[in-house]
Amino acid sequence: MEESAQCEQVSVIDELLLGKELTKKLCEQLFSSSSSSSSSSSSSCDTNEVLIEKIISTMEKALAKVNCMANVGESKAMMDSHCSFTNGSPKSEVVEPEVEHKHVSKKRKTMPRRREQVEVCLGTEGNKEDGYSWRKYGQKDILGAKFPRGYYRCTYRNIQGCLATKQVQKSDEDPMIYEITYIGRHTCTQASHLKKTAVPPSKTKVRIEENKHQTNEKNQPQQEKIEQPPETIFSFGSQGEVKVEDLDLEIFPSFCFSSPSVGSENEENNNIFPHSMIDNNLLENFSSSFMSTTITSESDMFCNWESIGLGQSVHNSTSDITDIVSTPTSATYSSIMDLDDIFLDKNDFDTDFPMNTRELCI
DNA sequence: GAGATTTGACCAGG
DNA sequence: CCTGGTCAAATCTC
Prior knowledge:
about 350 residues; N-terminal domain of TfIIb; 3-stranded mixed sheet; 14 helices; about 15% strand; globular; disordered C terminus; DNA-binding; transcription cis-regulatory region binding; transcription regulation; WRKY_dom_sf
């Protein structure tokens, strides 16, 4: 029994390593093809798609094995407690509002939920840059942190029972950076509304900065609080980063964008990114799939994944993603929670994943 | 006056 | 017992 489990584990690792290699290959291909000529992607696209299919296939195999192992092994308990989502089984979804209310727990920490963390460099308090309306309900000095952490919940919590919350904390290193941790998903109407209208918050102008050279162009999404001069900036790359972390699930430890493109206004976004950030096509894909997105199955996840890193060259169905976005969270990925240890190493992504959004998305 | 924010107290996990 | 997360009364803003 244990031997077979070990064999399975090895084969899973093999699958994942293969996936990693394929991903690298794909990245190299994407990077080189887009940097050489942005318009001649048709030939490489075919190859890319093949690669993508391989990657997806590899991942699905690995996941199937992991699931299999999990069902047999002792990790099942962990899976269950971690809102196991064995392929869409509604049996144990993420703790739903009713459940949370019943226990009236003042600590949400232990509740299984998906977390998203955005680390943006921006000049405002970061309260509404994601387009949702939040209400502050607490502030706490955190041990070891210079700045207090602010606790926000969805404004429509009482009205619509939306339990989305977020925590905003200034970075110790750079006070201009706010670490925002999103907990739970919006179940309120603004979630779906935002997806369609994506009304940018008003007032303060925001622009994307590229390596300290402000690429202030046509798009200047706005923010609500004007505590900053008009120079409110979102930065990416070397100065600032957009970091997405699924703290509980840790599929993608982090992403760093090195050079954002300034694209046309995107109307479709339902996510936690500041509107301005969505100007970037990649971010649209990225955010749609990973930020407020709910991943409901392995295949969904990999669809998302494919839409994230590969930008437009691969992404050919926004409606799919939109559908995914509006799907209830049921965290389908507990079975691969720890995969980043063996596959999605942070450094690998930072260094091996050449996500030059300008290259990819123009 | 309604809604948002502040802030001290409370609660529960580790 | 310490700490983080939440509550809720007081206060502020529009």
